[in-house]
Amino acid sequence: MRHIVIAFLMVLSLASSSVVATEPAPLESLAFLLGEWESTGSGQPGSGTGTAVFSRGLQDRVILRKSYADYPPAGGKPGYRHDDLMVIHADAGGAVRADYYDSEGHVIRYTVELPAANQAVFLGEATANAPRFRLTYKLEGDGSMTGEFAMAPPGSSDDFKPYLHWTSHKAGDGAK
User: Fold this and answer.
1) H helix or E strand, kind and range, residue 6
2) How high is the mean pLDDT of the chain?
3) CA 20 to 30 Å from 85, out of 11, 100, 127, 133?
4) Cα 166 to Cα 6, 15, 42, distances in angstroms
5) How far apart are CA 149 and CA 130, in angstroms?
6) pTM for this one?
7) Residue ranges of E strands in 14-79
8) Is the CB of residue 161 less than 8 Å from the CB of residue 175?
């Protein structure tokens, strides 16, 4: 009986691994994000520096982004640190979504669009009385990655205005 159970478990293991291997991989288009990225701000007063680490998790079913940014004192305001976590995942229909949480208490639900290779646009849900957010990443030809965080005011869900810009380089690549 023990041999039958072991054989059954082996067959089940092989069957489940082949199912995983043949499932579509909607997150593969975001593989350009993977790694540790060091960022510099736009050069404007008050722009920050930081690090974002994109890594696979849950047996490649999610991409996790853990990041922080340090902002120097500016305009009479003290310096501060911003930390956040984003979980990027595919829903049951294969659409890519992301859930964002930060140290300031914000939660943003994004849908993810892939307008071109090595580019991702995270589009926040539109709600009646709150701003709408858009986060864009683009891998440039020189290996750097540019980012932009934009906001649209309540009631004008597509009138995005840039809020933050940054350029990132892979940690340790020496191209800062």
Assistant:
1) helix 2-22
2) 85
3) 127
4) 54, 45, 5
5) 16
6) 0.81
7) 35-40, 49-57, 62-71
8) no
Residue with token string 């092989």: 14
Coil, helix or strand for 55?
A: strand
Which pair of structure tokens corresponds to residue 13?
């293991």
- The dihedrals phi and psi of 75, each to the nearest 5 degrees, come to 60, 35
Pairing of strands 96-102, 107-116: antiparallel
In sequence order, the 6+-apart residues with CB closer than 8 A to the CB of 86 are: 64, 65, 67, 98, 99, 100, 101
Q: Which two tokens stand for residue 135?
A: 């986060």
Secondary structure (DSSP) of 73-116: -BTTBPPEEEEEEEEEEE-TTS-EEEEEEETTS-EEEEEEEEEE
For the chain, which residues score pLDDT lower than 50?
3-12, 14-24, 176
CA atoms of 155 and 132, how far apart (whole Å): 9
Cα–Cα distances in angstroms (integers) from residue 31 to residues 56, 80, 144, in the given order: 9, 31, 14
Overall size of the chain counted in residues: 176
